[in-house]
Design goal:
This protein has 198 residues and is an alpha+beta fold. It has 6 helices and 8 strands, in the order H-E-E-H-H-H-E-E-E-H-E-H-E-E. The protein has a single domain, classed as 3-Layer(aba) Sandwich (Aminopeptidase), CATH 3.40.630. Strands 1-2-3-4-5-6-8-7 form an 8-stranded mixed β-sheet, sandwiched between helices. This is N-acetyltransferase.
Amino acid sequence: MPAAVYSLLPPDRGETVPAPELDDGAWRLRAYRPDDAESLHAALHESMDTVGRWQGWCSPSYSLNDARHWIARTRLAWRGVGDECALAIVDRQDQLVGSIGLNHWQSDFRMANLGYWVRQSRQGQGAAVAAVRMLARHALQVPELQRLEIVAAADNLASRRVAEKAGARLECIARQRLTLHGQPQDAAVYALVTGDLD
């Protein structure tokens, strides 16, 4: 795990949740908790037509145990074990709206991937755009990280709109950059650097 991850962590105060907590007044990003498993499972199962179209892991076979294991892995990642540093996107009532995370760190190039999804019943409300801006602004404060990439299937217009509204710039259409449901897919590659968030 690159130094950038540790730079994003708050001071160690003996807390059980080490991930950053970010808030813009309407939406909040926080670490996943073990008791989020049922909400995560329900969110994904309601979203097969949208999230499931673009993410092969979002399928009817996704179980409550899968949710529990993924939450455990992402909590470890914020402690430096693994690569999936994810945060829950929640509303003012702390209801799970979606997820956002940093992964595929390339410390030699001071860059990482930024990915997100929003449950089907809460799409179109601005949560993803706000989450991208909050996490990108927070992450790009550290000198070890100078670039975030958002890679979306070229036909995933909803995800591409989020990237554009958040201020990311389209850099290319990369041929067969992704594999979705076993098939190669062209991808739109967006990037965020510090100046994009002014």
